[in-house]
Structure formats: C-alpha cells, structure tokens
From TrEMBL:
<dbReference type="Pfam" id="PF05195">
    <property type="entry name" value="AMP_N"/>
</dbReference>
<feature type="domain" description="Aminopeptidase P N-terminal">
    <location>
        <begin position="107"/>
        <end position="243"/>
    </location>
</feature>
<dbReference type="GO" id="GO:0070006">
    <property type="term" value="F:metalloaminopeptidase activity"/>
</dbReference>
<keyword id="KW-0031">Aminopeptidase</keyword>
<keyword id="KW-0482">Metalloprotease</keyword>
<dbReference type="Pfam" id="PF00557">
    <property type="entry name" value="Peptidase_M24"/>
</dbReference>
<feature type="region of interest" description="Disordered">
    <location>
        <begin position="1"/>
        <end position="45"/>
    </location>
</feature>
<feature type="compositionally biased region" description="Polar residues">
    <location>
        <begin position="14"/>
        <end position="25"/>
    </location>
</feature>
<dbReference type="GO" id="GO:0005739">
    <property type="term" value="C:mitochondrion"/>
</dbReference>
<dbReference type="InterPro" id="IPR052433">
    <property type="entry name" value="X-Pro_dipept-like"/>
</dbReference>
<feature type="compositionally biased region" description="Polar residues">
    <location>
        <begin position="33"/>
        <end position="45"/>
    </location>
</feature>
<dbReference type="GO" id="GO:0006508">
    <property type="term" value="P:proteolysis"/>
</dbReference>
<comment type="function">
    <text>Catalyzes the removal of a penultimate prolyl residue from the N-termini of peptides.</text>
</comment>
<dbReference type="InterPro" id="IPR000994">
    <property type="entry name" value="Pept_M24"/>
</dbReference>
<keyword id="KW-0464">Manganese</keyword>
<dbReference type="InterPro" id="IPR029149">
    <property type="entry name" value="Creatin/AminoP/Spt16_N"/>
</dbReference>
<comment type="similarity">
    <text>Belongs to the peptidase M24B family.</text>
</comment>
Length: 529
C-alpha cells in the first residue's frame, strides 16, 4: 500500500487481482514514497536459493525463510479500499490522518524499517530481539482503559494494537535481519464486538514483516527462532502479561522462561534507549506539532476565567483534541493556590480563587509524540507584587537554561541542572530568601529536566550525565515551591511556580518546541486586558 516499502506489493496493487508469478524471469516494480524501484527474479535463482524469494530491495535483501514467500496470493486482492478493515488508521482508509507512505502520522514505512535496521546492526551475530505490545488494561470487569501502545514496540513496528510480539532476528554477522510480527488473527465474532483487527496478512502487506503468525501459537513459533539465536535481547522475560501468549503458562518459570533458559539473555532497553534518544527530523516535526497545538491551548486557557480546577482541566483536554492532538499526553496537574506546592498534584478538584495563581502541567500527544509544558499564571489575569517578583526570577533562570540546550554548550542535563540550581539560589537570595543548609532541597526539590518523546519521561534509565547532542529532546522546568516556613519571606508563602518548555537540541541553538505557550508577564497579563 502507500505505506509500503520496496519489497512488498503496495495496497493499490492488491486491490486488483494479480496473477501468480510464472517461472519466467519477472520484473516487478516496488514503490516507496514517491520513488519506484525495479527488481528481477527467475526460476533458476529461486531453485538455487531453496525457493526463497531473492528479490533485492532498495532497503535490504529479503531473507524470508518461507518457500515462495514473494509469490503468496494476497487474501484481499480484489477487495475495494472502502471495504478494507484494519485495526488502526492507514492512508487508504484515513487520508485525513496519514499521508501516502506513512504508517503512523508523520512516520513513514521507510523510517520504521530504518529503525529496525539500526537495532539489528547493534545486535551481535545471530542475535535476537523480542518485544511485546501492551495489553488491554481493565478498570473493572469488562470496563477497559484506553489502549496505549508500548513505546519501544511502537517505535520499531508502527503497529498499534494489543496482543502482539515482534522479533528482530539478525542473520549471522551480516547487516541483514528477519522481522517477525506475531499478532491476533482476523476473527469476525471478536471484531463484531471490539472493532477491526489488522490480521496476519496485513503484518506482511502493511507493516512490512518478513514473517507473520498467530500470536496464540507463540509457544510453537518462538522455539525455532530462539534455538538458533546467539544472544536474546528482551525485557519481557519476567512479564506476567507476556506469559499469557503461552497455552500452558502458569506461575514462573513460564514456558517462555523455559525456552530461553539455555540462551544468553541481555536487556533490550539500553539498545532501544540509544536509538530513541536521538530524534529524527520526522520525530522532531511531530513533537513540534504537539508543542504548537499544546502551546496554543495554554494561551487560549489563559484568556479564560475558570473557577474550578476540573473545568480548566476539561478545557485543556478538549482544546488539545480540537486543535489536532489525539489525546492528552498524561494526567495533567491543575493546581490552584497552595496545591501547587505538591509537584505532581493531580486531584484537580479544588476551586480557583481570585488573587491566587494556578500552575498547569499538561500537554497533548500527536502521532504518538508528546509535548510537556508547565505554565503558571494569575487566576484573575494580574500578578500581585510578590507573585510577579518570584515568577520573573524563575523565568530569567529558565530562559538562560533553555539557551544552553545546544550541542556546542558541551553540557549534560546534569550540568544544566547545576547551572539552574545555582541561578535559582542566587535569584532567591536577592528576594530575601535564606538559602543556607537544605533550603534549596525544599524550594527546588526536582531535577531541571528529562528526556521527552514517545514517553513523557522518555528513554527510562538513560543517564542525564550524557552530554546532550543534536536530536536530543529534553525539558527545562525550574520551579520554586515556598511552604509556610519562617525561614522565608511571608509574602511568598504558599506560592508554587514552575515554567517548563520542551526543547530540541540543535548544533548551535535550542529549538523550543512549545513556544506558542506565552510566558512573559506582559504577554500573560495582556491576554486579560
């Protein structure tokens, strides 16, 4: 289909009946985005390669071990586009969401394949990486939460359904690999209740897997792959959710653990973090879109007058979605008055009082990528003297720290945190704060930032001590939270102020992804003028 890589028939080719390949030399045209590639095979080549498809694609050689893999008849070869049903949007069914060539908004089939190639290149000879999708989480009984895909799984496959397993199997010490995607089969009864599934054929034709199969047969599909593996890289070995795919699995050790007991097991997360931490231009574009939509929502919210935290939160969620985001990226913090002293206050059920300020930490999600923004503003539209003094002190430090988010600064997030910490300490001294002893641990108790991307706190476990480089996306979020403590000026008591932007590191500058959310005092107050 339009999201196809060279090497598999495009969906538009599947929409008309195509005859099987003949033993004669065939010339087949492959599409990828706007480019067209040609490749040839013949019967003698197939015979010498044990009937394995020998088509050389523009991306990489096909290494399918299935006989006649490239001559398989597509099951929906004569179905119209309007009748096609998949478990997630594709360009042919949702052209308002995806451009031709994209598997998920903004991310093409080619980019997903490039990611798998990079992972395969990081594996040792005959290494295997195994990932599991998220499963459906239930609130109670049959009442489920909205599905959210495992970010590592989504990053490599673009597949956004539950109950699936992906395997990247490196071929020897070459750059080649086999991409297996095991998933739920088509099931008319289940789909009547729960909506369409993509099915095994779509794993090949839409998501560019080399091999596919029913995930319910994983206990017979995985052993041949694992037995030939040099090392197995996975984070699912102890997952109780993953064990559900094995018919006889019970309490640990489950069947999967028995399968891998003779294999060298390595954690997959460090390899995935190394890939995910550097964002591609397409990823940055998605994050910029999430930031633009989310920033405008913040500015729109500042124009309004709300009397309840929950009403402000509802407005934010609505405006994210109506602006083009798929959803809110995380449970927001809507903290009026002293509620802002709790860093992650999420009850969001208090009233908003005239004369107080409100701290909002929220963001939207676009194409799976999120924006993380915090703004603090006066509920009545006008800062009081102490509010303005503390706010502007924090803003000056935040602006300075954001400017350091460039590769040429030769700093890590930890390094930026130290500079931010010292800047806030100096600013507070000028406002009359006693900053001796443990004062800063109370007033500024969190780190200045974290990585951001498919997750709010992206690449879990990736060290903040690494020197930032082009393509890293991070947050800068200094904040000061003043409890009722006699060590500090009384007119600042009860104020919690945080200012946060999502930033993409560039060679010699910082690209602020969330610039549409105003933060200068004059701009905030002008919104109520």
């Amino acid at each position: 289909m339009a999201a196809k890589l060279p090497g598999r028939p495009a969906l538009r080719q599947l929409l008309s009946t195509t005859p099987r390949l003949t033993p004669k030399t065939q010339s087949r045209r492959r599409t990828c985005g706007s480019k067209t590639y040609a490749s040839k095979t013949n019967a003698s080549q197939q015979a010498t390669r044990h009937n394995v498809c020998s088509v050389q694609t523009a991306l990489r050689p096909t290494t399918s071990t299935l006989p006649n893999a490239c001559s398989r008849r597509r099951s929906y070869a004569s179905i119209s586009a309007a009748e096609l049903q998949f478990g997630q949007p594709v360009h042919e069914t949702h052209p308002h969401l995806l451009r031709a060539g994209e598997i998920t908004p903004g991310i093409t089939a080619q980019e997903y394949a490039d990611r798998r190639s990079k992972l395969a290149a990081s594996l040792p000879p005959n290494g295997v990486a195994i990932l599991s999708s998220s499963d459906i989480k239930y609130r109670s009984g049959a009442v489920f939460y909205e599905f959210h895909q495992d970010p590592d799984f989504l990053y490599l496959t673009g597949f956004n359904e539950p109950d699936a397993v992906a395997v990247i199997q490196k071929v020897g010490s070459t750059a080649d690999y086999v991409f297996h995607l095991f998933l739920r089969p088509k099931d008319a009864t289940a789909e009547l209740w729960d909506g369409a599934r993509s099915g095994e054929q779509a794993a090949l034709d839409v998501f560019n897997a080399d091999e596919s199969g029913d995930v319910n047969n994983l206990d017979s599909l995985l052993p041949p792959i694992i037995s030939s593996a040099g090392e197995v890289f996975t984070d699912v070995a102890k997952s109780t959710g993953f064990s559900r795919f094995f018919k006889n699995s019970g309490s640990p050790p489950n069947d999967f653990q028995k399968m891998i007991k003779n294999s060298k097991i390595r954690p997959l997360r460090p390899l995935m973090n190394d890939l995910r931490v550097v964002k591609s231009p397409a990823e940055i574009a998605n994050m910029r879109m999430a930031g633009k939509i989310s920033g405008r929502t913040f500015t729109n919210a500042m124009r309004q007058h709300f009397t309840k935290e929950k009403d402000l939160g509802a407005f934010m969620d609505y405006d994210f979605k109506i602006g083009g985001c798929e959803a809110s990226a995380y449970v927001p913090v809507i903290a009026g008055g002293k509620n802002a002293l709790a860093i992650h206050y999420v009850q969001n059920n208090a009233t908003l009082k005239d004369g107080e300020i409100v701290l909002v930490d929220a963001g939207g999600e676009y194409g799976g990528y999120i924006a993380d923004i915090t703004r603090t503003w006066p509920i009545n539209g006008k800062f009081s003297g102490p509010q303005k003094d503390l706010y502007e002190a924090i803003l000056r430090v935040q602006t300075t720290s954001v400017a350091l988010c460039r590769e040429s600064s030769n700093l890590s997030l930890d390094g930026i945190h130290k500079i931010t910490h010292n800047g806030l300490k100096d600013a507070l001294k000028q406002l009359g704060f006693d900053t001796s002893g443990d004062a800063m641990n109370v007033l500024f108790p969190h780190h200045v930032g974290h990585y951001v991307g498919l997750d709010v706190h992206d690449c879990p476990g990736y060290p903040r001590s690494v020197i930032i480089k082009t393509g890293h996306c991070i947050t800068i979020e200094p904040g000061i939270y003043v409890p009722e403590d006699e060590r500090w000026p009384k007119h600042f008591h009860g104020l919690g102020i945080r200012i946060e932007d999502s930033v993409c590191v560039q060679p010699d500058t910082a690209l602020v992804l969330t610039t549409e959310a105003v933060k200068e005092v004059v701009d905030i107050e002008a919104l109520h003028s």
